[in-house]
Amino acid sequence: MSAPHSLPFRQIHLDFHTSPKIGDVGREFDAAEFARILKRAHVNSINLFAKCHHGHLYYNTARPERHPALPAGLDLLGEQIEACRREGIKTPIYISVQCDEYAANTHPEWIAREKDGRQCGAGPLQPGWQILDMSSPYQDYVAEQTAEILAQFQPVDGIWFDMCWDQPSSNRYAIAGMERNGLNPEDDADRQRYAHLVAQQYMARYYDLVKASTPDALVFFNCRPFKFLDEEIGWFEQIEIEALPTGGWGYMYFPKNVRLIRRCGKPYLGMTARFHKCWADFGGLKPYPALEYETAQMLAHGAQCCIGDQLHPRGILDPAAYELIGQVYARVEAREPWCEGATAVTEIGVLQCPETAGVDEGTTRMLTQLKQQFDLLYRTDDFTPYALLVLPDAIEVDEALRAKLEAYLAHGGKILASGTSGLTADGIGVTLPALGVVPQGMSPFTATYIRFGQQVAEDVPPSDHVMYERGVRVTAAEGASMVAGIVVPYFERAWNHFSSHFQTPADALSPYAAAVTTAQTAYVAYPIFGAFSKHGNAPYRLLVRNLLALLLPRPLLRVEAPTSTEATITQQGERTIIHLLHYTPERRGENLDLVEDIVPLYQVHLALRRDVKPTRVYLAPEGTDVPFTLTDGYLQMSVPEVRGHAMVVVE
To answer: For 184-236, what is each residue's pLDDT tens digit?
Structure first.
């Protein structure tokens, strides 16, 4: 594995998916003006297109895929690269992989096929992308294109391969390949296994191709599931998180996934876009506060920034878009001295639960609102750096994981588990006895009620609080304590017995526990993190907060601020940087959340766990000193104003 690269902080991903039906491609392109606009916008790296989803090429080549409307003699990519390099701007090259309209139309036998024979992707009368099968000769076709691009532009700053997911297929090439590998084409799982095998094969091939040409080049394969990252990291020089919040990803996708990928030993960045909605939203311009938030969030998690755009077919950049980007990137540039090489400081590890919808997002949302410092983990990761582990909702604890968790507890670690984590999937058996519970199967009731005991009742209204999701029936084992109970309804709502509009009212306190604690563990009998993602019910967050207070009474950071405030800690040498973010996405359209206003907070009190008195505390980049005291092992301070994003530096 090669040494980590240093990524530029202010990148652009410049889409250029341009139909062959458009006849004036590149006609107004001015290389010098192109580079000047980028330079004025504080851009220091830009992904430029060699090949787009339409399958066309944008450089001088004898290959028939060259865009038919590109003027003879115009080496669009070559002139872009040359002009940008004169301005000191890096120029990784983009190549579309599984989306290729030209190849699909000229070689329909290369199109991936569903199990029933239908082609994957858009149908013949749909405006969209057909999907190619990488087990067909198309893989060689892309390799030939890549080799030509590498030869023509050597040395390259990088190659950015796009649309690289695992694509199951049932065309004749895929079926033959599955049979060669002893897999059954009729079995969906085997089709998925073969797709994964093919993806890893072509990634290794293309990676080697790039490195043979330019050993120092960056290489990235977009659209890979992060759950495979631990086995595929050797083919990546950087990790990028494509996450356009208004384009379907939402505002939780980046902060969830960055907590997983930032531990992988490679540089990483977040990618948003300047569009109001999603890619190729021509005429759609995002409000400045939204783009400030998205890039500030990247910096707060130690990531570099990338903003997506799309070049107009005639080759001209949108001046308003780059005025917006320039304003945002000037702000990023001013903060880079406190972000370069900074790494996250955490004390909680969360085992990721990727197969259960909403759990990882709910855990991220809840712990972020609680200002906890946490990472997402693979079960193969080292647990010892973390003071506490969270096993959310449905973590299957096999023998290997049980032994690892018991060793972790033996060295003083703490565990918070929920749902069937540490139990069998049916809620009958125990796979992690240290949780201190006696399970008796799943509850017969869809909705029940939580009665908070005194130990976990801080700030909780004195009521029985509804839990909308089915839980497990457990009692406390010997030596454990029930700290919250379950109140059951009169009956399960059904066609033949129901009451009023929604769930049946609470009837009586049952013998079963909603939460159980031991000296080192806490267990919640519900899938509380997925429930929080789905329902956003505040008592769920309060229960977890109060259980965490029992397990971690001296957290790394305390912040007196609204739940809408995000707080992260990074370390840069002997500097500690606390990032405070307060932006409030609102529902501004159907399925569209957006930040349009920056609402400041004043006099935000912080308490950072620290034994040694610092020499100075100040705000960056302003340089304004922040008064502080060191009391009972906590550095106490008050930030005068948080206008969107504040960086508190402890020297």
So the answer is: 999 999 999 999 999 999 999 999 999 999 999 999 999 999 989 989 999 99
Token pair of 459, please? 């700030």
Say which CATH class 557-650 falls into: mainly beta
Name the β-bridge partners of 522: 416, 517
Q: CA-to-CA distance for 280 and 16, rounded, in angstroms?
A: 9
Model confidence at 5, pLDDT cuts 50, 70, 90, reads low
**Side chain identity at 334, as an amino acid letter?**
A
| pLDDT averaged over every residue in the chain | 97
Say if residue 155 is preceded by a cis peptide, omega within 30 of 0.
yes
- Which amino acid is present at 335? R
CATH 3.40.50.880 residue window(s) in the chain: 346-551
CA 486 to chain centroid, in Å, comes to 35
Radius of gyration of the chain (CA): 27
Q: Cα(34)–Cα(76) distance, rounded to whole angstroms?
A: 11
Q: CA-CA distance, 375 to 381, in Å (whole number)? A: 11
- Domain range 10-339, CATH class: alpha beta
The full DSSP string for 106-136 is: H-GGGB-B-TTSPBSBS-TTSSS-BBB-TTS
User: What are residue 523's DSSP bridge partners?
Assistant: 417, 516
User: Which part of the chain is CATH 2.60.40.1180?
Assistant: 557-650
Q: What is the pTM of this model?
A: 0.96
Q: Which CATH architecture has domain 346-551?
A: 3-Layer(aba) Sandwich (3.40)
Can you tell me the distance from the alpha carbon of 552 to that of 387, in angstroms, rounded to the nearest whole number? 8
